[in-house]
Amino acid sequence: MSNVSINQASKLFKISRNTIYARIKKGDITKDSNGNVSVQDMIRLFGSRQDKKATNNAVKDLLSELEHTEQDNSVQLNNTEQLLLIEIEQLKRLIEQLEKQLEYVKANENWLKQQLEQKLIEQKSYERRGLLSKLFG
To answer: Is residue 11 part of a domain?
Structure first.
């Protein structure tokens, strides 16, 4: 079956939490790493004290409630996954835009370097002219 919290078990089977803890300590009830106890152990130990039909109905209701909660959690996970996929697509588009901008900047940088080299060449040829050619054009 499933596991329930100690508080839920004490309410379902109408016994105190101290009794549950004592049975856990004795080893009659198993407790998982989350602190939940086994419903099977609870029914085996305490089911005969209460009306079995009422206990079974309460356990079934609790288990169905837990299943609905798990389904809701899976729906929330699906929504979260969809949101993450949308965000990934948006980030991919942004990366593409940034790559295009980078290509444009590199092309602009190359053009500016060419312009600078051309001006330097013109400047050097102007400096090579003699004094008379500078004065008289």
So the answer is: yes
Which pLDDT score, from 0 to 100, does residue 91 have?
86
Residues 6+ apart with CB under 8 A from 4: 12, 36, 37, 39, 42, 62
Tokens of 38: 């086994």
- What gap in Å lies between CA 56 and CA 65, rounded to an integer? 14
Distance between CA atoms of residues 37 and 100, nearest Å? 59
User: What does 28-55 look like in DSSP terms, one character per residue?
Assistant: SS-B-TTSEEEHHHHHHHHGGGS-HHHH
- Alpha-carbon span 2 to 134, nearest angstrom: 100
Domain count across the chain: 1
Q: Is residue 26 situated within a structural domain?
A: yes
> Does residue 119 sit within a domain?
no
Burial 82-109 (b: 16+ CB within 10 A, else e): eeeeeeeeeeeeeeeeeeeeeeeeeeee
Q: What's the pLDDT score for residue 31? A: 87
Residue 48: pLDDT over 60: no
The DSSP 8-state label assigned to residue 88 in this structure reads: H
Residue 125 lies in a domain: no
Q: How many helices (H) and strands (E) does the chain have?
A: 5, 2
